[in-house]
Amino acid sequence: MEFDVLYLPTDPPIASFVKLESSPPSGEASQTPTTMVTIRGDPSLGLQETVSAVLEGAQTGSRLRVPLGGDAGSGSAELACERIWIALYWCFHFTSNQHIAVPKGKPVPERCVELVLESDDSTACATASTHLERLGLVDIDSREDGTRAYIVFATTFWQTSLELFISRLNPHRYLPVKPLRYTLSNGTIRHPKRPLPPQSKTPFYTRHCISDKVNSIFRLRPVDMSDLDLIHNWMNNPRVAEFWGEQGPIEHQKQFLEKCLASKHSFTAIGSWNDLDDQGRLTGWRDACFFDIYWVKEDHLARYANNVQDWDRGVHLLVGEEWARGRSRAWLDSIIHYMFLADPRTQSLYLEPRFDNDLLIKLLMRHGFYKVKDFAFPHKQAAMMKLDRDCWKGCYQTSA
């Protein structure tokens, strides 16, 4: 898919204008697309950068050439990292559905690119490469001729906090990880002291989702009491009520929401969409989904699960708007990304849908979840679904 506008995961989302130029196929070689990205943001921030990149080869193991620009040698390591990250963002987010020809039954190689930095100042490339390695973004491989190859894996890219690379553009911030301290809940459950939830009314995750069905920005923001009417309407949707059982008068949802907001081991969020028009302009935020994100160690689910780790997370979720039901793969991909990105110590994610919720269970399995077991909660028969971090393949251009 060729596209003209790409929004960066910043607050607010910054529009980038993209031009793709593909060279014609030569023999068995794949096309070599060239993307030119121009970031347009708040003029007061002076965001007039142009990022160029050449992707050589469309399949795994390809090369991504990134010119650092004429000012790379002037000590602007921050600007160099910004250019590199944006080029990788385009590469991994919007070329990930390209076909990888693998003979039947043979192992599928892990998606990665060799990063080739270009500058008239050779020390600038070496400095930038060393900096990226220290930040955990690149792996350095030694070739037989003694030169080095700088490899970036898609899974590494999606698990690395973007604030390390585009801090100038006001990205969502998840660092730092605080030193470990333990506390007790209910006098008996020992667990790490949890970080505070995101600030009220402040979006904490953004992602541009593009597919054959959707071209839209997905955003997560905390819930507050001003969302009561919205939650009341969603919970009284018969489709939602069948699985959540929280239908009833608005006083019932008020008590439900107050309990959620008072929780010390979870927080609730609203997922919203902002569709792009034909000119690539945002048309306005529309609330669509509800998420209850929790730490498993303190949750009642921990009584039924084996080997729950200190930082494992779970989520309860619902899609409240009928128009958003066709976007399930996009929002699920995004909520998974957020939970793994928010804390690098989180090794596993859990969901426990009702055992007969076949649509959700199949959707989860497409994203790498596996069923641990069916088990009996006091209020429902549930399927324990689990996704381990090392089994997650990262975000991709979704087919909604």
Automatic annotation (TrEMBL):
<dbReference type="GO" id="GO:0019290">
    <property type="term" value="P:siderophore biosynthetic process"/>
</dbReference>
<comment type="similarity">
    <text>Belongs to the lysine N-acyltransferase MbtK family.</text>
</comment>
<protein>
    <recommendedName>
        <fullName>Acyltransferase MbtK/IucB-like conserved domain-containing protein</fullName>
    </recommendedName>
</protein>
<dbReference type="InterPro" id="IPR016181">
    <property type="entry name" value="Acyl_CoA_acyltransferase"/>
</dbReference>
<dbReference type="Pfam" id="PF13523">
    <property type="entry name" value="Acetyltransf_8"/>
</dbReference>
<dbReference type="InterPro" id="IPR019432">
    <property type="entry name" value="Acyltransferase_MbtK/IucB-like"/>
</dbReference>
<dbReference type="GO" id="GO:0016410">
    <property type="term" value="F:N-acyltransferase activity"/>
</dbReference>
<feature type="domain" description="Acyltransferase MbtK/IucB-like conserved">
    <location>
        <begin position="221"/>
        <end position="267"/>
    </location>
</feature>
